[in-house]
Amino acid sequence: MSEDGPKRTRPFVLITGTPGTGKTSTASLIAERTGMKHVNVGDLIKEHKCHEGRDEDLDTNILDEDKLLDAMEVILDKAAEDGQGIVADFHVCEIFPERWFDLIICLRTSTDVLFDRLTARGYNEKKRSENMEAEIMQVILDEARESYAQEIVHECPSNTVEDMETNVTRVEQWGKQWIKDKDKED
């Protein structure tokens, strides 16, 4: 989103975390409940071909960050112009400019639950091991804390449907307060 772009009247939220922590499910539910536009960044990458080759060992495409950021900027500017909130989900957070998001939710999942989820997705041993290690070492959470203001980064458990429901409700309530606070500023 360009710095001189339209003033936002609705919040932009990023749901991040290790693959398998429930980002897309959580973001979809938030969008459904709040009317925010859901931006599944993984789908956006595929749609706009924001990759520059393939990592065969990890069975994944290599991200073209510049192309992705250009595509996202158009979407975020349009949402701001239209007075629409955004809830984006992606397993990488540090590539996005700090000004883009008002709230960062980093989902965390216990290793036994995560192992089962990644296995069910058909991840090969190397890819599953790397993601398990990233979760154990809280790589995504640390990247979020290093990339954004501490007060907007929140670590949330994501092991059960109840956890997801709690997280969605928290974001829903936070969004309502964000809008009230924004209205007071104007």
Overview of this protein structure:
The protein is of the alpha/beta class and 186 residues long. It has one domain: Rossmann fold. The protein is 49% helix and 18% strand. The chain contains seven helices and seven strands; from the N terminus they run E-H-E-H-E-E-H-E-E-H-H-H-E-H. The protein has a five-stranded parallel sheet with strand order 2-5-1-6-7, with helices on both faces. The protein has a two-stranded antiparallel sheet with strand order 3-4. Strand 3 and strand 4 form a beta hairpin. Helix 1 crosses helix 7 and helix 4 runs antiparallel to helix 5. It is globular. The chain starts with 11 loop residues before the first strand and ends with a helix. Keywords: ATP-binding, Cytoplasm, Hydrolase, Kinase, Nucleotide-binding, Nucleus, Ribosome biogenesis, rRNA processing, Transferase.
CATH architecture classification name: 3-Layer(aba) Sandwich
The ordered string of helix (H) and strand (E) elements is EHEHEEHEEHHHEH
Cα-to-Cα separation, first versus last residue: 21 Å
Uncertain runs with pLDDT below 50, 5 residues or more?
Answer: none
State Rg. Answer: 16 Å
| Chain-averaged pLDDT | 93
CATH class: Alpha Beta
Strand residue content: 15-25%
- Strand order in the largest sheet: 2-5-1-6-7
Task: Give the CATH superfamily.
Answer: P-loop containing nucleotide triphosphate hydrolases
Tally of DSSP helical segments: 7
Main beta-sheet strand count, sense and barrel state? 5 strands, parallel
Spatial shape: globular
**Count of individual beta strands:** 7
Helix percentage range: 40-55%
Structural class: alpha/beta
* CATH T-level fold name: Rossmann fold
Integer count of domains: 1
Organism: Fragilariopsis cylindrus CCMP1102
GO biological process, one term: ribosomal small subunit biogenesis
Subcellular location: Cytoplasm; Nucleus
Protein name: Adenylate kinase isoenzyme 6 homolog
